[in-house]
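Hi C.,

You asked whether I'd gotten around to modeling the 122-residue construct. I have! Everything is below, sequence then structure, no commentary in between.
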Amino acid sequence: HDCFEDRRVVVDDAIVGLVESTGYRVIGFGSTADFLAWPHIATAACLVVDLMMPSIGGFELHRLLTSKHYRIPTIFITAYDDEDLRFRAFQAGAAGFLLKPFDDESLFQTINSALAQGQADQ
């Protein structure tokens, strides 16, 4: 993971420890507002965000970041098994889509893929 050493994986608070166990630098936020107030958004190499969050959901957050010209590979997670949500996520430019509960390996593979995509986009 050396090439991503200075980049951060930004995740939902609930999975911080899990992602940290793979050796990534991880920052967790308890709310969308906390993330948006973070002064280092541009250093995020990957974002793992739930579609259903209080105040601002995953799609809205992604649209907001895109409108501000942040190109952060975003992985959407949700407990709702809905083909329309999956379609909308990829239409919005998702780097990944995981249905809860997901296994650790699926999460790690999706993060690795998103990080590789982010490197290719730069």
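If it helps when you're writing up: The longest strand covers residues 44-50.

Thanks,
B.
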